[in-house]
Amino acid sequence: MMQERRAAARERLDENGLITVDEHTSIPCLIYDMSERGVRLVSLEAGTVPETFLLAAGWLPEVRVCEIVWRTHEEIGARFAANP
After folding, report:
1. Superkingdom, according to UniProt (predicted)?
2. Cα–Cα distance for residue pair 55/40, rounded to 1 Å
């Protein structure tokens, strides 16, 4: 049996989101699951997302700053950056 390594449980979402790369570029994504500390995203353009990006969705109360922890061809695992 595989041991769970996450510090916080993730909730399955399958909701649309938007990755903002800069003031001129946004990439659509699927927010696959999320926890209080991070998120897993699916995007056909995962390889073009920078190490730090903004994540927005209509149902999120605020835009979140994210830092990539791992990445595959179509998925990104990211943690939420600490608020200043």
Report:
1. Bacteria
2. 11
Cα separation, 84 vs 71, whole angstroms = 25
What residues pair up with 19 in beta bridges, in sequence order? 27, 55
- Tokens standing for 7? 């510090």
Complete DSSP assignment for the chain:
-PPP--SS--EEEEEEEEEEEETTEEEEEEEEEE-SSEEEEE-TTGGGS-SEEEEE-TTSSS-EEEEEEEE-SSEEEEEEPPP-
Lookup result for tokens 């990006």: 53
Q: Can you give the C-alpha Rg of the chain in angstroms? A: 12
**pLDDT digits over 19-54, tens only?**
999 899 999 999 999 999 999 999 999 999 999 999
Domains of the chain with CATH codes: 11-80 (2.40.10.220)
